[in-house]
């Protein structure tokens, strides 16, 4: 059962990372021509071209947000692989720096974009993205601070939170995709469901992160020397 859970988790992570890669590549291909050739208004307007048009007005900011996003989704899974962490600690440290730098750029630009780029979901979406950008940045800071203090268990927990919030952007695309596909039945417009989609994705990922942390928690001792439950020791080792 435990193996099944871990396998389901890794499958989910790979799937969401792939979605993350696709959305970044697609958006990059759309905004680079704007940077090189200048802005041209779309000839046909639909719900999709309207969204593309929003980002076409902010090509540089979008690129600064999504290129580190690509680094984040590609490097993230390796940071959480026990084998790499345990056998190649130097790689884990180097990957950690990359994760931290890209994460900080993503979080800061996400906060700026929350207010600078018109949100299809209005205020509801702005509050969700601004709040979770801040929480994401705070989690990254805590993960960094805790490892500097050699508090491995706590470092691991904050890193899981940050990673889960970052990956939520892919889940949000799935949720909003379902809202789009069912809008004929529900009657909901993108303005109504976009914000809800953002909240659902971020909150779901926060719950999943807390669930996983609780299930695999390393025991923290008073002296901050990490000890392990039998289950978490096995997870840490393999
Ligand atoms: C804390 C995590 C993140 C927050 C709060 C956040 C927030 C935002 C915001 C506010 C926007 C502009 C508004 C909108 O999409 O409607 C945006 C756009 C975007 N973000 Fe993020 N972001 C985060 C992480 C990431 C990551 C890790 C990736 C990499 C996969 C990513 C990829 C994108 C892309 C591709 C866009 C352009 C819109 C699109 O093509 O769908 N973001 N993000």
Query: In what order do the strands lie side by side in the largest sheet?
Result: 1-2
Q: What top-tier CATH class fits best?
A: Mainly Alpha
Q: How many helices?
A: 10
Helix content: over 70%
Which term fits the overall shape? globular
Ions, cofactors and other ligands present here are: protoporphyrin IX containing FE
- What number is the mean pLDDT? 90
Distance linking N and C termini: 16 Å
SSE order, as H and E?
Answer: HHHHHHHHHEEH
Question: What is the second-level CATH architecture?
Answer: Up-down Bundle
Total DSSP E strands: 2
- Our Rg estimate from Cα atoms comes to 19 Å
Q: Strand fraction band?
A: under 5%
Q: In terms of per-residue confidence, which ranges show pLDDT below 50 for 5 or more consecutive residues? A: none
Return the CATH topology.
Four Helix Bundle (Hemerythrin (Met), subunit A)
- SSE-based structural type: mainly alpha
Biggest pleated sheet: 2 strands, antiparallel
How many domains comprise the coordinates? 1
Keywords: Membrane, Transmembrane, Transmembrane helix
Pfam families: DUF2306
Transmembrane segments: 12-35, 55-78, 98-117, 123-141, 162-181, 193-213
Protein name: DUF2306 domain-containing protein
């Amino acid at each position: 059962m435990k193996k099944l859970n871990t396998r389901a988790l890794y499958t989910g992570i790979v799937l969401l990372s792939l979605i993350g890669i696709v959305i970044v590549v697609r958006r990059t291909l759309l905004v680079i021509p704007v940077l090189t050739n200048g802005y041209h208004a779309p000839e046909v307007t639909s719900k999709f071209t309207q969204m593309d048009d929003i980002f076409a007005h902010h090509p540089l900011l979008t690129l600064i947000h999504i290129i580190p996003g690509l680094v984040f989704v590609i490097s993230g899974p390796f940071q959480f692989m026990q084998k790499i962490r345990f056998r190649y600690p130097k790689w884990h440290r180097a990957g950690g720096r990359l994760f931290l730098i890209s994460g900080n750029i993503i979080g800061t630009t996400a906060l700026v974009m929350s207010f600078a780029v018109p949100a299809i979901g209005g205020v509801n979406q702005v509050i969700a993205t601004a709040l979770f950008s801040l929480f994401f940045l705070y989690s990254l800071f805590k993960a960094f601070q805790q490892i500097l203090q050699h508090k491995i268990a706590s470092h691991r927990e904050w890193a899981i939170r940050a990673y889960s919030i970052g990956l939520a952007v892919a889940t949000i695309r799935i949720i909003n995709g379902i809202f789009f596909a069912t809008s004929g039945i529900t009657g909901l417009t993108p303005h109504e469901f976009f914000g809800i989609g953002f909240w659902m994705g971020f909150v779901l990922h926060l719950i999943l992160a807390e669930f996983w942390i609780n299930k695999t928690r390393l025991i923290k001792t008073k002296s901050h020397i990490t000890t392990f439950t039998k289950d978490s020791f096995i997870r840490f080792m393999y």
